[in-house]
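User: Show me a protein chain along with its predicted structure.
Assistant: Here is one chain, sequence first, then structure tokens.
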Amino acid sequence: MKLRVLLVLALFSVVSSGLYAQAQADDPVSLVENITGQIFTDVTEHLEEYTANPQLLEDLVRRDLIPLLDIDYSARLILGRAGRGLDKQKIDEFATCMSNLLISRYSKGLLTFASKIKLQVLPQRGELDEKLTRVRTRVTLPEGGEAPVDYAFHKTPEGWKAFDVVVEGISYVTTYRNQIMPEVQADGIDSVIERLSTGQLQLAD
């Protein structure tokens, strides 16, 4: 449960109000600092409305999530060796499938945890690296205590985008790759996309 809570925070504190924040920040640390808590405030203030109509929250997450995540790059990392030789169309389909899965899963988590978690952004270490810059944060958990959550960013033609979240040393990309890559190697990408879309293939956090 702790890992899922942290992933909810890690994904959505970064991406809330994404387009506005991207326009206002020119480095990953500022990006995270500018937008931390915005979506949590929104959910807390409209909790009753979102609880009655969860689709509204999914729409909010979809609008604000995609612009600040490099979904295609993350999808390629998750597929790993199993993605070699796949047509771009298939990778795009898989990326869309994964983004839909995350939006559905973490929208539900936000309803439960948005008002119960606090996040502190730590100062940047060293110079920015356009290939990989980590933003370090500390999360205060509802039951007490803190846990480290790092965001992995890289610079794209559209600006800085997050492609991985590392929670207590556990990478979101690695966690999903360990589950998905063997499935693709065994049954093929089409089977995996179909089973993820229909819920037949369940991924653990």
